[in-house]
Each structure stands twice: as structure tokens, then as C-alpha cells.
Design brief:
Blueprint: E1 11-12, H1 26-35, E2 40-43, H2 52-62, E3 65-76, E4 79-86, H3 93-118, H4 125-129, H5 140-149, H6 156-161, H7 179-188, E5 192-195, H8 204-217, E6 222-226, H9 232-245, E7 248-251, H10 271-280
Parallel strand pairs: 1-2, 2-3, 5-6, 6-7
Antiparallel strand pairs: 3-4, 4-5
Helix pairs in contact: 1-2
The structure holds adenosine monophosphate, fe (iii) ion (2 copies) and zinc ion.
One fe (iii) ion (FE) is lined by residues 71, 82, 196-197.
Domain Polymerase/histidinol phosphatase N-terminal: 11-76
InterPro entries: PHP_dom, PHP_domain, Pol/His_phosphatase_N, Pol/histidinol_Pase-like
Pfam families: PHP (PF02811)
Length: 290
């Protein structure tokens, strides 16, 4: 297989542009990937494929292989669980409808959070609009940028540790499907699902472990193990789960431009894993660097 491999390494399978909560356009992101020495990059904006076309043109122009993807919001009780999805059909009607529903829910939730924050701080919805690309998937990072622009905090991270943290009392969850439903949607659209950063310091990993057999039956491909937010103990558990269920293990940066400290290529995925991922996909094809 490796002899006829068409893509190049190093491979980073998780990045965000201004189509969601990154700070660069898809073209700038692909250029940054080339400059960082990556051979292959996946664009995985939250709940949107709106950056695929621009990233495709940029990939061809910069000699980088692009794996089109998305990071789908899912939810278990009060905890959000992120599902990376690769190479699905971006026109699949059910997936298009579900992502539209999630983006709409995110928008209303952000408006409500900002209304609540605005009762205590000098910030309003126009401040958030000013920080958000038209049509982008809105999230707390855009509210954070508005708080920074107002001088109420100095960085996104400070906003997340303070005003945007659930402890501050302004946090609200938003509608998102159950992870199993999301896996089924991605697979039905010909895509390949991987659970993003499954072992961060939240309690959801326990829930996920209990449900792993059903996720695998539904077509889960892998677990994102090499990610800066997974704990060391969590990685041990993920390795065991991957052994038990025959799951692939991926690594990636979760780059958000200047929105997070994560740097392109700080974690990477083995070429053999990407070979298997591409072989599994039927919804769309990578854009190969030539
Ligand atoms: P939301 O999905 O709207 O609740 O916001 C969560 C998103 O915020 C995640 O997808 C992260 O990319 C981003 N995020 C979380 N913590 C931070 C942080 N400390 N600095 C910047 N972005 C963050
Ligand atoms: Fe994000
Ligand atoms: Fe995520
Ligand atoms: Zn992400």
C-alpha cells in the first residue's frame, strides 16, 4: 500500500479556519501548513464544510494534500463531545440538515450568553458580530474575541478561564446530537468518524468507554490520541480501547491560528493510518498534492 501512497507527510488531521473559530482564512491556513512543513492537512471546521472549496484551491496552489473534514458537535448530557469526520459527501442531505440545525442552535445560544454577560459587562451582540466572519459557525471563541476587543480580558484563554467558564454562570449548552447518531450520520454520508480529544479532563470519557462497542458497531474508525489536551492517564486508556476494538489512533494539532497556542504539526498521524482512513471513505476524495 505504502508504495503507491499518493499523499505526503507529516500529516495533521485537525485544524480550524475562520469558517468556525480559527483566526485564518482556509487559504491562509493551508499556506501556513505548507510553511510549517506539513505534507497533508485536514480542514475540520466546527459543524461546517464552507471552507472546503477555498482550501482545495489553496492546497493545489501550495503542494499540500488536503483531507476535507469537519468537527461535529455532539452532546452527552451537559458535556460536549467532538466527532471528527473525514471525506464524507458534503451534499448528503441529512448531514447538511443536521449541521445547519447545530449552527442555528449555536447562534441562539451565543446570543443568549451575550445577553446575560451584557447585564454585567459592557459588551453586546454587535461586538460579537464584529469578530465573526459572515456565515461562520459561532462559538464561545467569538464571544471571547468580543471581550478582548472591549478590553475586558486580554486573551481568549483568559475569557475561557473566567467569564466563559461554566462556573461564571453565563455558560449555556446548545443542541447537538448524541455521538452515536452523529457517527451514523457520518458513515451514511460515506465519511470516516474519529472521536476528537476523547481524554481531556472532563468526565465524558467514562461515558464514552461504556458506549464504545456501539460506536464501533456503527462504524467508528478511530480515536484522536495525540492531542495536547488528552491526559497521560487518558492516553493509556485510549490505547487499551483501541486494542480492544481494533480502532485506529490519530494525532493532530487542533490548530486555531492565533486563537489557541496549538501549533500546526505539533502532533501528527502515521501514514498507514491515513491510508486506512482513505480506503474506508466513499463520500469524497482527498485533494492530492502533485
Ligand atoms: P463552544 O463550542 O462554543 O462551547 O466553544 C468551545 C470551543 O472553544 C472549542 O472548540 C475550542 O476550540 C475553543 N476553546 C476552548 N478553550 C479555549 C481556550 N482556552 N482558548 C481558545 N479557544 C478555546
Ligand atoms: Fe474550536
Ligand atoms: Fe474539539
Ligand atoms: Zn477542534
Amino acid at each position: 500500500m505504502s508504495s503507491d501512497r499518493l499523499f505526503r507527510g507529516p500529516i495533521d488531521l485537525h485544524t480550524h479556519s475562520r469558517v468556525s473559530d480559527g483566526t485564518e482564512s482556509p487559504a491562509q491556513l493551508v499556506r501556513a501548513a505548507a510553511e510549517a512543513g506539513l505534507g497533508t492537512v485536514a480542514l475540520t471546521d466546527h459543524d461546517s464544510t464552507a471552507g472546503w472549496a477555498e482550501a482545495t484551491t489553496a492546497a493545489i496552489g501550495n503542494g499540500v494534500t488536503l483531507i476535507p473534514g469537519m468537527e461535529l458537535s455532539t452532546r452527552v448530557d451537559w458535556s460536549s463531545v467532538h466527532l471528527l469526520a473525514y471525506l464524507f459527501d458534503p451534499n448528503n442531505a441529512k448531514l447538511v440538515a443536521e449541521t445547519a440545525r447545530i449552527r442555528e442552535a449555536r447562534l441562539h445560544r451565543a446570543e443568549e450568553m451575550v445577553a446575560a454577560i451584557g447585564r454585567d459587562y459592557d459588551v453586546d451582540w454587535d461586538d460579537v458580530i464584529a469578530q465573526t466572519e459572515p456565515g461562520a459557525t459561532v462559538g464561545r471563541p467569538h464571544i471571547a474575541d468580543a471581550l478582548v476587543a472591549r478590553g475586558l480580558v486580554s486573551t481568549r484563554s483568559e475569557a475561557f478561564a473566567g467569564i466563559l467558564h461554566w462556573r461564571a454562570g453565563y455558560y449555556q449548552p446548545h443542541y447537538a446530537p448524541d455521538p452515536l447518531v452523529a457517527i451514523e450520520l457520518v458513515v451514511a454520508a460515506g465519511g470516516v468518524p474519529v472521536i476528537a480529544h476523547p481524554a481531556t479532563r472532563s468526565r465524558t470519557d467514562v461515558v464514552l468507554e461504556d458506549r464504545m462497542a456501539s460506536f464501533v458497531d456503527a462504524g467508528l474508525f478511530g480515536l484522536e490520541i495525540d492531542h495536547r489536551e488528552n491526559t497521560d492517564e487518558g492516553k493509556v486508556r485510549l490505547r487499551r480501547l483501541a486494542d480492544t476494538y481494533g480502532l485506529a489512533l490519530t494525532g493532530s494539532s487542533d490548530y486555531h491560528g492565533e486563537g489557541k497556542p496549538n501549533r500546526l504539526g505539533e502532533n501528527t498521524t502515521a501514514p498507514e493510518v491515513v491510508d486506512a482512513l482513505i480506503a474506508r471513505a466513499t463520500g469524497s476524495a482527498p485533494v492530492y498534492a502533485v
